[in-house]
Predict the 3D structure of the following.
Amino acid sequence: MALPDFEPILGSWPSGQRGLMDAFLDLARAALSWPDVQPSLVSREGVSHSFRAGGGQPDRTRPVFFLVDVVVSAADPWFLSVCFYENEITDPDGLGNPIPKGLFDETGYCFDVDDYDADQIQYLKDRLAEARQAAFGR
C-alpha cells in the first residue's frame, strides 16, 4: 500500500495556521495507524485536498469510511471538513452536521475544524474508531 504524499499540501500550508496542520496530521495518522486501511489523496487545485481512508469488509461498497477535506482559499483561512457516513457514527455532543448527498451521494456527517483543539481532535478520533468498526466489523 502506498502512503499519500502530503508534501504538496504541507508545503503550501499558510504559516499562521500551524495548529490546523497539526490537526490534519493527527487525524490522518490516526487513520493510517490501522492495518488494512487504503489511503488516498485527491487534490483539486485552489479548492481542496482530500485525505481519504478506505477499506473494510469484502462486501463493503462504500469507497471510504473517513475523509478529511483541507478546504483551501487564497482569501480566507483554511479549514478542515472531517466527514463520515451519517449512519456509521454517533455524535453525542451534537458537534457535526448532516450533509445530504454530500459523501459519494449518501448523507455524510461532517465536522468543521479551524484550529487545533485537543478535545475536539480526540472527539473526532473517537468518531473515526466508530467508523472503522462499521467498515471493518472489528
User: Anything to note?
Assistant: Residues 18-136 form one domain. The two ends are 20 Å apart (CA to CA). The chain has three helices and six strands.
